[in-house]
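A quick aside before the break. I want you to see a complete sequence-to-structure record at least once, exactly as it would be stored in a machine-readable document. Don't worry about memorizing anything.
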Amino acid sequence: MNLTSWLPQLVIPINLAGALVVIALLFFLIRWRKLAALLTLTAVAWVVGWSLPGVTLWAGGYLEQRYPHQALEKIPDAQAIIVLGGHTANNRKNWFEELDTNNTLSRVDYAAALYAAGKAPQIIVSGAAFDGGMSEAQMMARSLEQLHVPSNKILLERESQNTRENALFSINKLRTNGITKVLLVTSSLHMPRSMATFENRGIEVIPAPVAPQILLPEHSDVDLWIPSWRTLHASRSIIKEYVGLIVYWTRGWI
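That is the input. The structure line, written in tokens, reads:
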């Protein structure tokens, strides 16, 4: 596991809180009681903080609004659509609602809608296989075909295992095919890191994020300051993006 994927796992609220409590117990046993108490309070605050819908709306909403979602008719034409692998919060339309598998909006759905609207004549799907089976690119290609995108209009990039490799390998494929202007499709939450990674590589990249997910539903009874297990679980996606931005920046990738 590389640093980019290891750090988010460490700071996931439950994981970090568990580690801090174990360390606090060790400090308590060697009579460093004040430090043990401080670590325990930090663990509780980290878990409770990320379980609050208000914190999610602030931290995640900030990233989602960096590149606002636009109606199809406002998105300019390009030579191709790039779809990055992955899914955020199981593609649910709203993080604060129960998952309805019959009412989701994925990156593939949005890419197919862009293609159907004539925004680009072909689609590139990017993502490797993480379990030795079918790659994300292959799975997305199959889904696109089911959404009436012809197979000869789909290019596959099946080697990338993270956002940086999505950019490197996809751009190589773009150049091979003489493509210089693309629409980039990913979740609104993932778009800031994606755009930062794709920019300044000799290709004009236009953000086309899927509709934001971190919004209070209409007629919502969600209390912003009451802890929620669903909010706590979803927070890992937000944490992953902030950690990813920091790691990519320190490594000079963005």
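Two observations worth writing down. The first helix runs from residue 3 to 11. The beta strands are 80-84, 123-126, 154-157, 181-185, 204-207. We'll return to this after the break.
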